[in-house]
User: Fold this.
Amino acid sequence: MTTRSPSRPVNTRSGAARMPARVALPQANLEMIRHSMSVGMCRALKVRLTRLSRRGVQAEMTVSEDHINRTGRVNGGVLMAFADVIGAIGTVANLPEGHRTTMVWQTTVSNLDGTRVAIVTQTQIVIPARSEAPAPAAAPAAARARRRKAG
Assistant:
């Protein structure tokens, strides 16, 4: 069984998600997406992108015995993880360069026959990697003490 997931932005605080789909994705965003697809949950779930644009993402994953719960259905955690990584890819595709942002995505997960198995609405919050985060400001008292010593 294969599960499909179209994901589209529902609401956003950034104008990037409202850009026309024909706008090419920035190279940096594409590189982040390629990397994301090769590590972590995307790799563990063997997610395959079938369509990627600023207006939405479509992906597939093959469901294995490891994904099935005691009732013979796909485990809800697997569905949530699948929807989460697809929403994250959509967020990266729409990420304005150098800006922090929050985006809300709705992901519909269906079987190959079109039977809907989940609708997931999620908020993706972009947090810069530690190397991108600004250095913490020195405590005011420590900064004043350094200026006194220097002056």
Remarks:
- The longest helix spans residues 76-93.
- The mean pLDDT is 77.
- The beta strands are 2-12, 48-53, 56-62, 102-111, 116-125.
- The radius of gyration is 20 Å.
